[in-house]
Design a protein that fits this description.
The protein is mainly beta and about 180 residues long. It has helices spanning about 55, 165, 170-175; strands spanning about 5-10, 15-25, 30-35, 45-50, 70-75, 75-85, 95-105, 110-120, 125-135, 135-145, 150-160. Strands 1, 2, 3, 4, 5, 6, 7, 8, 9, 10 and 11 form an 11-stranded antiparallel sheet that branches.
Length: about 180
C-alpha cells in the first residue's frame, strides 16, 4: 500500500533505467533506481528508505525468502543498498545497510539492530553487527551463514547481554559446542 509514487524512465542504446522512483508509504519514503540492458537478464536496483521487513522479502529470490522466518521487526527498518539479479540463475545478490528497532530473533527480543548485510549464492554475511538487548549490547565483527548447509560461523562476538538470553538464539545441539 502506498500513498504516492513518481519516477523517471529512460531507454537509450539498449539500456533501460528507472531513476528517481519515489514511493511514499505510511512508514516512510522508499527511493529506487533500476538498471537493465534490454535482452539481458541481469539487473541492478539501488534501494534506500524505510519499509517493513516483511515488505523487503520480495527483494530476495523465492528459494531464500526463508531467512525472514527467523526474525520479526515491530517497526519499519531503514535500508540503503543494492539488489542484483537474476535470481532464477543463482546470480541474485543483496548488499545493504540495515537498521531498526524492535527486533525479535529466534524469540529473543532486541531493542535495536544495525548491520551491513550481504546475501548471495545461498550465503549470508553480516558485518559490523550491533544489537541492543535489554540486558546489554552485543556486537560481532562478522557472522557467516550457509543456508543450504544450515550452519553459521561467528567472528569476534562480544556480548554484555545475559548469557541465558543469548543461549536462546542457538539450538541445544549448537550449545554443546560451547561446553
Amino acid at each position: 500500500r502506498f500513498s504516492g509514487a513518481e519516477a523517471g524512465l529512460s531507454l537509450q542504446d539498449g539500456h533501460f533505467e528507472t531513476s528517481g522512483v519515489r514511493i511514499e508509504r505510511p512508514e516512510g519514503v522508499v527511493e529506487i533506481t533500476y538498471r537493465q540492458n534490454i535482452g539481458e537478464a541481469a539487473y541492478t536496483m539501488d534501494v534506500s528508505g524505510q519499509a517493513h521487513a516483511a515488505d523487503l522479502r520480495g527483494l530476495f529470490g523465492p528459494e531464500t525468502q526463508q531467512i525472514f522466518d527467523h526474525f520479526t521487526v515491530e517497526e519499519p527498518v531503514v535500508v540503503s543498498g543494492q539488489v542484483t539479479g537474476p535470481w532464477e540463475t543463482g546470480e541474485g545478490t543483496v548488499d545493504a545497510k540495515i537498521s531498526g528497532n524492535g527486533w525479535t530473533i529466534r524469540d529473543v527480543p532486541f531493542e535495536a539492530l544495525e548491520t551491513q548485510l550481504y546475501y548471495g549464492q545461498e550465503r549470508v554475511r553480516v558485518t559490523d553487527l550491533s544489537m541492543r538487548h535489554a540486558s546489554g549490547p552485543v556486537t560481532a565483527e562478522r557472522v557467516d551463514v550457509a543456508l543450504e548447509e544450515d550452519y553459521a560461523t561467528l567472528h569476534n562476538v562480544v556480548s554484555r547481554a545475559s548469557p541465558q538470553a543469548m543461549a536462546a538464539l542457538f539450538d541445544e545441539e549448537d550449545l554443546e559446542l560451547f561446553d
